[in-house]
Amino acid sequence: MSEYRYKMPDVGEGIVEAEIVEWHVKVGDKVTEDQHVLDVMTDKATVEIPCAVNGTVTKLVGEPGEIIAVGTEIMFIAVDGDVPAEDDVSAEAEKADAETQAPKEETKPAAAPAKPAAAPSAPAVAARPAGERALASPAVRKRALDAGLDLGTVPGTGPAGRITHEDLDDFIASGGRLAAHSGGAGSSVRAPRTAVVEEKVIGLRRRISENMSHAQRTIPDIAYVEEIDVTALEELRKHLNGAKRDDQAKLTFIPFLVMALTKALPETPQANAHFDGENMLLTKYEGVHCGIAAATPNGLMVPVIKHAESLDIWQIAAELKRLGAAAKDGKATKEELSGSTITITSLGAIGGLVTTPILNAPEVSIIGVNKMQTLPRFDENGQVVARKLVNLSSCFDHRIVDGYDAAMLIQRVKGYLENPATLFM
Questions:
Q1: Active site residues
Q2: What are 24-65's pLDDT values in tens digits?
Q3: Which class is domain 124-198?
Q4: Coil, helix or strand at residue 291
Q5: Cα separation of 149 and 305, whole Å?
Q6: Which of 30, 83, 367, 382 is deepest in the core (most CB within 10 A)?
């Protein structure tokens, strides 16, 4: 029996460190070569790390959220026979396919060391003093919250009375969950909620936090909100959807907005650009690579419709559908999640009346779509009529885009959307 020390691999592209997102093994587990044992996040993507040898895990180094340098020993494995030479397993990092991994959910903490076998009869658990906060890991607290349990009522068998997953299992199996919800027959007393959940911000959520904080600290932006009358566009959209082929994606408002931007941006080229503030370098793009902010189970992602100016309305809708599904399923590639030159963000029916979206640096423009409403407005004859209206709440990097230019860009977009036939000219 010998010990193999597995090091944080070099996943390529100049990466010198990676953040531990989730361990998929714990001390005492049997592991096999090529088994998926760890997820790490670089500044490029989330990467699945495979095991290099067969054996038994004896030690794990690093908790979720920790930044570990490449080459650091992170997993110790007891193996039969001689330890493989480093060259024999150096290729394992290449199996971690960062090119095809979208960021993924990272809510589970590292697994705790294997718990000793329980004694034939469980030891008595001392009652927790009233008002004393229950000890539990973030994962246990979240699980209890989801189950509607007050951790103050759950006996803990861990060190210092810490509540473990096994304690929750035993408590629920014994009817504790039912008791926690019951107030007695006819009771109208509502029990207070006392659980407090602490979660470490790691992985994709930390990356989002860092990017948003950097943008807010460093970019002086200007917001511009305009009302768009989309009554005619909605009639056209309804007609096109009724006449579309079965293999064509359903049209929403977003493809029309993308088309309007591709037509309006050439007159404001500085709005379709990246700005490097440190080097004072503005890179303007002729092609429109439109990022579409998408809420996914794994957090905010921005898949990109590349060269939207070369696509017709149906092709834009198809790309929007394909990229949205890939992002939600965690299958979007790094290329599909990068390279945007301008971003659209929309919350659909819950989009509110006005928003102030944060710029997706190094971009200098972001277009926010608020909810559609039917409201009374005066027509050209002074009569009150019902109109379908959408607000566009847009933000621009004021170092690059002047207020006048920002306003003129949105007014041109407004003109295309309010006269949708011009989109196809």
A1: 398, 402
A2: 999 999 999 889 999 888 765 678 888 888 999 999 998 888
A3: few secondary structures
A4: strand
A5: 45
A6: 367
